[in-house]
Write a structure and sequence with these properties.
Helices cover 30% and strands 23% of the residues. With 194 residues, the protein is α/β, with parallel strands linked by helices. The protein has a single domain, classed as Rossmann fold, CATH 3.40.50.10420. A hairpin with a 5-residue loop joins β4 and β5. The chain is globular and about 40 Å long.
C-alpha cells in the first residue's frame, strides 16, 4: 500500500509540473508541433497497416488529432473515438465525420450515442493521450483510469502522441498501468525499452 501511495504522489508531482508547461505554452507553437507529430505518425508502418483506429479527442493543448481524423476519414480506414459510458468505463464508437461528436463528460468531445459501438477486439491501433511519458512506455494521464481500464487485455497497438517536454526520466509504474508500443514527439519516435 505504501509503495502505491508513493507512486501516486510522484505521479501527481509529474502531472502537475508537466501540465503547467502544456497549459502555459503558445497555441501557435503547439499547433506547429502537433503538425510535426502527425506527419511522423502518418508514415509509421503501424499506422499505415491499421484499418480500425481509435483516436482521442484533444483537450488543454494536447497534440491536436482533429486534422488527422479528418484526413483519415477520407481513407479506407474506420475511425473511432471514445465515449464515456459511466464512472469507470469508456467504449469506442465509429464516426463518419466530426459532426458525429458532442461535448461529453469532462468537456471532451465524444461520439454521439447514435453512433455505432465498435468492438474492442477489432481495433488495430489506439492513439493515446497523456500528460507525461517515459522511455519505458509508461504513461500518466489525468488519473481517472479510463484508458487503463479500456486497454486491459486489448490486442491493439498503442501509440502515444506527445511534445518533447512531456517525456520525463521515470514514471513509477503501478500494476494497472498500460505501457505504450510507440511514443511520437516532434523530434523522436521512441520505441519503449522493455
Amino acid at each position: 500500500m505504501e509503495k502505491s501511495t508513493t507512486a501516486q504522489k510522484q505521479k501527481h508531482l509529474i502531472r502537475k509540473k508537466t501540465l503547467e508547461k502544456r497549459l502555459g505554452g503558445s497555441k501557435k507553437e503547439f499547433k506547429q508541433r502537433s503538425h510535426e507529430i502527425i506527419r511522423k505518425l502518418l508514415v509509421t508502418r503501424i499506422f499505415q497497416k491499421s484499418k480500425n483506429i481509435l483516436f482521442y479527442m484533444p483537450i488543454q493543448n494536447e497534440v491536436d488529432t482533429k486534422p488527422l481524423i479528418e484526413l483519415v476519414l477520407k481513407k479506407d480506414k474506420n475511425v473511432m473515438v471514445p465515449r464515456v459510458e459511466d464512472e469507470k468505463t469508456m467504449e469506442a464508437y465509429k464516426i463518419s465525420s466530426l459532426g458525429d461528436l458532442i461535448v461529453g463528460k469532462f468537456g471532451i468531445l465524444e461520439a454521439k450515442k447514435s453512433c455505432e459501438k465498435f468492438q474492442k477486439k477489432d481495433i488495430d491501433l489506439v492513439v493515446i493521450p497523456g500528460i507525461a511519458f517515459d522511455e519505458s512506455g509508461h504513461r500518466i494521464g489525468f488519473g481517472q483510469g479510463y484508458y487503463d481500464t479500456f486497454l486491459k487485455g486489448i490486442r491493439a497497438r498503442k501509440i502515444a502522441l506527445a511534445y518533447d517536454f512531456q517525456i520525463v526520466e521515470n514514471i513509477p509504474r503501478e500494476e494497472h498501468d498500460i505501457t505504450m508500443d510507440l511514443i511520437i514527439t516532434p523530434t523522436r519516435a521512441i520505441v519503449p525499452r522493455r
